[in-house]
């Protein structure tokens, strides 16, 4: 392969230093390289530019006319590279302009993303968030293509190739309207089963969940009167009727003026929520800052 096609940035940094020092030994000291290594790079540069670049003189080395012509554009190009690197390593939220695509369930949007958006408006107004429907089977390909930058989800179906950070553990609570005639702080399993229940079926239309399997093992069957496709409709529906529902606790933390929240009378497994991202965004200053904000919000919750 032609040596001109194998140009590497380190060679240009060496040339800039050599032209500034006009001495191989001093340039090697500045670059923290050995003198033979710098001499070898100088030979590659001479071949690349088809010019001696530096020639011996009684005071060390003198730059050729071609080398002097290269010096200013070389400095400008390297300064631009250094500036770009500095901008990414020293991220400034208030002046940043970027768009981030986040995939999550509607529950996570209500519990985490809503607060995140308010924080961004105050501390990083130039960051735009695009919310995407969470599609776990397609997530790895979406992130590799840059269509999704972050995913907030349970880790059960998380692709192993993606980076993962645990955010919080969620648990279920039972909610009903204030002054519900049959909802008590301490329910028996039989009383729980006799209530009219709303369940959430993410696939749509299902009237049975893992909770019903647990009840069946105890010898009970609950009365499910509505199957919803989303958790978001459930608190309002419950607050206006006599139906009850098991929902993630964080969904109703700020809704308790309209709802009564009680413990389920038998153990119901909760679930973890974490954050996933692709290696392509791992070192980006803006994405790193945003991930830290989400981690802090989750810990505050």
From TrEMBL:
Keyword DNA-binding: yes
Domain named HTH lysR-type: residues: 7-64
Keyword entries, A-Z: DNA-binding, Transcription, Transcription regulation
Signal peptide: none
Family annotation (Pfam families): HTH_1, LysR_substrate
Superkingdom to which the source organism belongs: Bacteria
Family from the record: Belongs to the LysR transcriptional regulatory family.
Protein's UniProt name: LysR family transcriptional regulator
């Amino acid at each position: 392969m032609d040596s001109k096609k194998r140009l590497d940035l380190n060679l240009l940094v060496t040339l800039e230093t050599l032209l500034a020092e006009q001495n191989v030994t001093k340039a090697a000291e500045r670059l923290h390289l050995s003198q033979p290594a710098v001499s070898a790079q100088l030979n590659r540069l001479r071949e690349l530019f088809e010019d001696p670049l530096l020639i011996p003189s009684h005071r060390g080395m003198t730059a050729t006319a071609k080398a002097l012509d290269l010096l200013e554009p070389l400095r400008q190009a390297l300064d631009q590279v250094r500036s770009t690197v500095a901008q990414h390593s020293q991220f400034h939220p208030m002046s940043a302009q970027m768009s981030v695509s986040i995939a999550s369930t509607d529950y996570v949007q209500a519990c985490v993303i809503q607060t995140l958006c308010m924080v961004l408006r105050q501390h990083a107004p130039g960051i735009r968030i695009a919310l995407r429907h969470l599609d776990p089977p397609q997530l790895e390909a979406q992130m590799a293509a840059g269509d999704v930058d972050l995913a907030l989800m349970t880790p059960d179906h998380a692709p192993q190739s993606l980076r993962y950070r645990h955010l919080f553990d969620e648990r279920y609570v039972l909610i009903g309207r204030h002054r519900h005639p049959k909802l008590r702080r301490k329910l028996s399993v039989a009383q729980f089963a006799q209530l009219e229940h709303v369940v959430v079926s993410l696939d749509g239309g299902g009237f049975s969940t893992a909770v019903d399997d647990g009840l069946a093992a105890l010898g009970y069957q609950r009365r499910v009167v509505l199957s919803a496709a989303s958790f978001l409709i459930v608190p309002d529906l419950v607050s206006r009727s006599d139906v009850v529902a098991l929902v993630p606790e964080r969904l109703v933390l700020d809704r308790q003026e309209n709802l009564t929240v009680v413990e389920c009378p038998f153990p119901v497994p909760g679930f973890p929520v974490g954050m996933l991202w692709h290696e392509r965004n791992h070192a980006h200053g803006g994405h790193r800052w945003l991930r830290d904000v989400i981690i802090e919000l989750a810990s505050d919750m």
